[in-house]
Design brief:
With 508 residues, the chain is α/β, with parallel strands linked by helices. The chain has helices at 8-35, 55-60, 65-68, 73-76, 82-88, 129-146, 148-154, 171-184, 200-210, 231-236, 254-257, 273-285, 311-316, 322-328, 345-360, 369-377, 383-397, 410-422, 436-461, 466-473, 477-487; strands at 40-45, 50-53, 92-99, 102-113, 116-126, 190-193, 218-222, 237-238, 251-252, 262-266, 287-288, 297-298, 302-307, 331-334, 366-367, 402-403.
């Protein structure tokens, strides 16, 4: 019979040949996958004789795969049950099996063809039971990540801000964020220093969110706001019946609330000596003693402290414990004042204006060049907090949708214009005849003079009320006290002959 090219016989032969090559490729791929499988696999026939085994399975038995072929499973696999599954035809999933002193998890699956059992596949899922525990721990961590948003919405004590909320690309901010990101990965105690309004709490939030404790609580404590008599019960809690008026169920203190998370101690420089001693014990012993408790309780909370005061100076003056200072001063971070990173002001405004527009209902499309230049020239004694207050006030004063010079408060324009004329404001360069020391001295003197005027004006407008004056300036009461004492400012006598109920020189 003559076979014509492209005839039906020729085509049939080619198809069969191609099919045979495909089968060979599939078989080679199957063998390769079996031999190189990470999980140990062995295949036995219906009588329990080994047909094939992966290298992983053979190495687990300290054998060569080739030496296992053709042998009964009971001769090569200790404590095996493959032959029993071949007899019963019932699969055994995730069964514990001990081989050479190791507990592992194995599954045995019968394979049928046309209703008849033809083989049994054995599979080692974990070569050591410890691998299972490791995987379970990873699963819990991944699960926590997956449900982080949901958990965060349920837990109001979680950190609200991340490093993306620290706006700016100046060199000081870049260095700060790089260092803070590294520190976040550890459990080291952090001391954040910086002037009022620089964003110390925001940085603490970001460190917590970036840390391994990010799924734990973030508890913020304003140390200056806790009365001395309530310090222990607020920070360490109390037990039922420990004092008159105590809750029947007792109360968890801030440290207990922060267990497995982070506690942020703001304005730590305002603590009284007796309070400092109690805090020191917690940091040293890592345990708290609630009021009315019989014994101390362990606590696992990372400490991030913050201050706008010079703690080293307070130590020298005897106002702050040296041992507590060194407990807190493990990893110091300094937040630069806004005047040292004036180049970040446009970016900060770009982030602030949409927020303020949403809050006030006043649309704002941006800032014109002259207004931006004046804002960059101003010294910002109240830092980012003051910038936010000025921007909010300007929204109400502006005409149109763009912030301009006319919308800025007069004192801002006057101070910025004076600095601009002198060439000292913001990031203005030195003139050729200036020395660095002279320029620094002039800048500090001008800023001190302006800051003093600003404080005196606010105190006068508040009629000596220290709380109202601090609110007008967007700063804390303790910072106002500190600055007023530094400049020797007292409340002037008002027309009614009084200095006001909350005079600044009244340190009650």
């Amino acid at each position: 019979m003559k076979i014509r090219s492209n005839g039906w016989v020729h085509r049939l032969i080619r198809e069969r040949a191609a099919g045979g090559r495909q089968i060979e490729r599939d078989l080679a791929l199957y063998k390769f996958a079996l031999e190189n499988a990470y999980e140990g696999i062995v295949v036995a026939d219906a009588k329990g004789y080994v047909l094939s085994a992966s290298r992983t399975y053979a190495s687990f038995l300290q054998l060569d795969a080739a030496d296992m072929i053709g042998k009964h499973v009971t001769d090569v696999i200790p404590n095996t049950r493959l032959h029993i599954v071949a007899e019963t035809g019932k699969a055994e999933i995730a069964d514990l099996q001990q081989i050479r002193g190791h507990w592992m998890i194995a599954s045995r699956i019968p394979i049928r063809s046309g209703g008849e059992l033809v083989a049994v596949v054995g599979k080692i899922m974990f070569q050591d039971i410890d691998n299972l525990f490791e995987m379970n721990a990873k699963y819990k961590e991944i699960k926590a990540h997956l449900h982080y948003g949901e958990a965060k919405s349920r837990d109001a004590s979680g950190a609200k801000y991340g490093f993306e909320h620290i706006v700016g690309n100046s060199e000081p901010i870049r260095k700060l964020k790089t260092m803070a990101s590294k520190i976040a990965k550890s459990d080291s105690t952090v001391l954040i220093s910086g002037e009022s309004g620089t964003g110390k709490e925001l940085l603490a939030h970001a460190i917590h969110r970036e840390s391994m404790r990010r799924f734990g609580p973030f508890v913020a404590v304003n140390c200056s706001a806790i009365p001395e008599a309530l310090f222990e019960s607020e920070l360490f809690g109390y037990k039922e019946g420990s004092f008159t008026g105590a809750r029947r169920s007792g109360k968890k203190g801030k440290f207990a609330q922060a267990n497995k998370g982070t506690i942020f101690l703001d304005e730590v420089g305002e603590l009284l000596p007796s309070q400092q001693a109690k805090l020191l014990r917690v940091l040293q012993e890592k345990e708290i003693e609630p009021v009315g408790a019989d014994k101390p309780e362990p606590v696992d909370a990372r400490v991030i402290a913050a201050t706008n005061r010079d703690l080293a100076k307070l130590v020298r003056e005897g106002a702050f414990r040296e041992d507590l200072f060194y407990r807190l001063h493990v990893v110091p971070l300094r937040l630069p004042p806004l005047r040292e990173r004036a180049e970040d002001i446009p970016a900060i405004l770009g982030a602030l204006l949409p927020q303020l527009s949403k809050e006030t209902g006043i649309p704002a499309e941006g800032v014109d060049a002259e207004c931006e230049r004046l804002l960059m020239r101003y010294g910002w004694p109240g830092n980012v907090r003051e910038l936010r207050n000025v921007a909010e006030r300007a929204l109400y004063a502006m005409e149109g949708a763009v912030l301009n010079r006319a919308a800025l408060p007069a004192e801002i324009v006057a101070a910025a214009s004076a600095d601009e004329r002198s060439g000292r404001g913001g990031s203005a360069p030195l003139t050729p005849g200036d020395s660095a020391a002279e320029a620094e001295g002039t800048w500090k003197a001008k800023m001190a003079e302006f800051e003093k005027r600003l404080l005196q004006d606010a105190i006068d407008r508040a009629e000596g009320d220290r709380r109202k004056a601090a609110a007008l300036l967007g700063m804390s009461k303790s910072s106002l006290y500190q600055k007023a004492e530094q400049y020797g400012i007292v409340a002037r006598t008002m027309p009614n002959g009084r200095a006001g109920d909350g005079a600044v020189n009244d340190r009650r």
